[in-house]
Fold each of these.
Amino acid sequence: MSFKTYDPQIIESKWRKRWEENHAHETGDALVKPKFYCLDMFPYPSGDGLHVGHWRGYVLSDVWSRYKKLQGFNVLHPMGWDAFGLPAENDAIKKGIHPQVSTQRNIGNFKRQLTEMGAMYDWDREVNTSDQEFYKFTQWIFLQMYKNGLAYRKEMPINWCPSCKTGLANEEVINGRCERCETEITRKPLVQWMLRITQYADRLLADLDKLDWPEKVKKMQSNWIGRSEGAEIIFPLVGIENSIKVFTTRADTLFGVTYIVLAPEHPLVDTLIKPEYKKEADGYVAESMRKSNIERMTQVTGKTGVFTGSYAKNPINDDVIPIWISDYVLMDYGTGAIMAVPAHDSRDYEFASVFNIPVRQVIAANSQDTSESTEELYTDKGTLINSGPYSGMNSEQGKEAIINKLRKSGYAEPKINYKLRDWVFSRQRYWGEPIPIIHCKNCGEVPVPEEDLPVRLPYVERYEPSGTGESPLALIEDWINTPCPRCGNPAKRETNTMPQWAGSSWYFLRYCDPCNSQEPCDKQKADYWLPVDFYIGGNEHAILHLLYARFYTKFLYDIGAINFDEPFTRLFNIGMINKDGYKMSKSKPNCVSSDEIVNKYGADTLRLYKMYMGPPEQDSDWNDTGIEGVYRFLTKVWTISMKSLEYNPVSRPDVVKETHKLIKGVVERLENQKVNTAISLFMSYINYLAKEHPEGLDKDNLGKFITLLAPFVPHFAEEIWEAMGNSQSIFKIGRWPMYDTNIIEESTIEIPVQINGKVRDTMIIERNASKDEAIKKAKSSEVIKSYIKGNSICKEIYIPQKVINFVVKQK
Ligand code: ANZ
Ligand code: ZN
């Protein structure tokens, strides 16, 4: 047999070609075999291509897919492109290349890189959110939402850059300034499409319990949904026939209210501002409109506000209290108005200190301390004081009693609020799915008939933002003008497009049936494949994408399109790759190009190194000597394998045992997401062999070892598998080896020998020794003999693998 040297370049291109020729990665739709759906968060195909940081998640998902395939599962491991949206459009504008052209080009490059990785993606199932066969159903889902009252239009203030003359996404606003030109942004009211995700708030929260997801992600989602139990309380106005409704979680502090605050956008603001305060108040309101909610909530430099000149009455005791305006109260939470209790709320306390408003303590830390009110901030729950008949109750009792009292007279109502807001679903941008609605003078909003889908995105030369706050599509006369589907009169298309999250909210469904022209996915196929068993991606998606996908899934479940209501059973968040202390990124000098590494060491080495470099959920540092080490290891495995095939040694019991131990260890570590430590096991196994059996492995053990290694280094494994005389791919005919615990366990064990229940000696016996053998051996011990000497044994007890006990009687 010729003793080849390890040449990754030759091996890897050989096997990639072979896989392609044999359609090795095609997924069978044999809907009877047990399935495993292993999914990567699909990438946005940027112009920069992949660097070694991106490889981590893709390799992990490929290792899992191949592992499951070797275990006999029917594995779905697809890939596609999150191609619509702002990043692609901005990139195109920057480079002056049409997004359609640049997206296509970038996809080509990504696909080449992913293929070179040796990943088993089934490219027959590739999806692309900007492909009209795909977005036809993104639009179809929107229409279903519209028909079910979940999509609606509303005037909403959006972030507006007066210099770029365009709306900006929240992510594009940095400290209140435009990310691109640093001009201060303003808020501009625009009619927007909204999705009523708030209708699903309770289910999105409750069903988190069903998910095998990192606790951190679940916590972030639940905070984002932000369920808050409290009450709405009505404060009648003094001298005006009207009232202010507030939302509070602390009705127990009602006697401590010393003022009311309205958000600057509150509809009563104009009514309440008295003429002498008007100038100052108007200026303040205008000023606040420029700030984003985030700024308003996190503002550190003191509270600001203005007095309206008006008063309200506290419904519990008829106290007359002043009404202020301040931007620490947000219009889009609760009722946009609060009852301020400076003694027990830190924001109110700060505000009251600035404006010299009285602080009235009504909660004491403990029941003894019912003394004089001090001007100190106390935000915990406690015992009510200075609260009339409610004094002496604890906070919980006080809340209930006060709400009940006011409820009878119609001044309060228990209320649950959510932080979650309806989803602003329209973008004034070109590169997205057109919203399938037609506006008609006679009929109003008319949904595009389903048989007319897709509403195609027209190809245009100019796709920059229009400057008027309208989508660039508004400039394309022959596209927007269309007859009304209902009455036939001239009408106009909706020109806003969907946000980049639209396609990714349901793409996992499409992979199961990517060519279906009738529906998003055949129900039987969806039943078989979904939900996704294992979903792998970065933690930047902890909220938005994962929440939107859950929302879409629940909606599709509700309309009977699918039979499951959570898309991703198990989620794994992959850590980042740092180099020289910074996150690796294309724009920084610390970027290591994966092409470069693949050219130098081969894809298998990079794959193995990625899995070896640290716990996959944690950030890890790229290290050049680390990859060298992994390459040397593979070379060593290669050499031992070649030797094994040349000498073909017989099977040895110690090797068999080591192999079984390895199988057990690798399975445990893979299942527990400790891939990096699985690789250490491979390394010790090889070290053991090099030391004890330099002649190598017998065929059976070599086959098992190579199979275990195959998910990590598929080209490498195929080559050795073939050299072993197999004519078909290891992933086709190979089977994940089983281990036998009896073989793994040591064949001898050490057990204590007791006399009258006291340990007198220990000895090593065969694990499966019979009682006679064990007793005989124990009696031969000099120590035991000396204890028994002259006495008689009246009972011999042997508890297999545990203990021997002699019951001895003195003569
Ligand atoms: C009186 C009070 C007294 C409050 C006290 C708190 C402590 P969560 O838990 O986040 O729901 N609030 C209500 N609406 C608001 C708005 N639109 N903008 C800013 N703050 C608002 O918070 C509920 C509490 O946040 C409410 O309870 C209200 O202040 C404030 F010792 O009412 B509280
Ligand atoms: Zn019409």
Amino acid sequence: MAQLELDAVRKVFTDDDGSDIVAVDDVTVDIEDGEFLVLVGPSGCGKSTTLRMVAGLETASGGDIRLGGRSIVGQKPQDRDIAMVFQSYALYPHMTSRENMSFGLEESTDMTDEEIDERVQNAAELLDIPELLDRKPAELSGGQQQRVALGRAIVRDPEVFLMDEPLSNLDAKLRSQMRTELQRIQEDLDTTTVYVTHDQTEAMTMGDRIAVLDGGELQQAGTPLECYHRPANRFVAGFIGEPSMNFFDATVRGDRLVADRFEYGLREAAVNDVAGAEGVTLGIRPEDVEVTPGTEPADDNEFATVVDVVEPMGNENAVYLGFGADPTDPFVATVGGMRRVEAGQRVIARFPPDAIHLFDATTGEALHSRSLEDADPAEPRI
Ligand code: ATP
């Protein structure tokens, strides 16, 4: 086990017409010994390229990658003590699960047959697949094949696991089950892991920390809750969370925000945080928008709105709201699933001042984040 350090890592590809594509732009992140780091971001943001540079499948154009304090940049992939799991399971079709798992060890180590057998058996038990060891891939479901692929990485007992969207070929239910199981396995093994996904739910639920990439650049590295409640910029705020945070462009006028469809009264802390900024973006998460029946706003944190669409999800309803009678450009609030809300209903939407985020309209940088002080201390810890 070891700490993995990415130090200003960069990758520039050259296009067919000779122009440069900066796929990864000076990414610096330290992954602690035993840590589970999720690299997350939209398609094309440089996640796989970053992972492939760590594996040695791609040569870095700049920066350094250190494992246990030693640079591995010049090492061949097979000399790096790293095991990679891909989205495609890439199992040998003519081999049984047992042979698929043991093959790498037979080829690249001088372990005895007994030692290899023991490792395969232990990994199979960890993955709950001992009864599948004598089956070939064609006789296994997708989820079972992915377990064998994981087993093949686990038997190597590497310093680092690299996983590139390993669950994306599975159906939603199995994916959620495998997410929990992978976390348990990673905790049991305590092996430093970098896991790539474009799925923010996977990132939020699996990572000790997440590193959010966009356009090849690291936007934020932090715990899932830090990224959720204290996003470094508008990109992270919009990427993490489902449904996404609502955004409204506005101008600062003293202690007021003037947006297209409303004006909003700021508290002192927010006024101080936006001092000097003219254009800002107001952000509020759907679960923070309070929806109550009525037509008369009580203060300048409330607005008269009309329900445009209601999407019932069972546990909650996503309620799309428009300002005034013409619900163009709706924003979304989530309310309890048992609440009765109907399209066309007139309601008051409140943006609690403690819950708002403010971003610089030009750079997207966070100027003010929601307060976490209103978390109820009386709520029992579990
Ligand atoms: P996805 O989630 O779609 O797999 P990603 O975040 O993993 O995306 P990468 O595959 O790392 O993104 O690609 C990052 C950028 O580098 C993209 O713009 C991609 O087109 C470009 N790129 C990747 N590999 C090459 C290559 N071999 N030659 C040229 N450009 C490449």
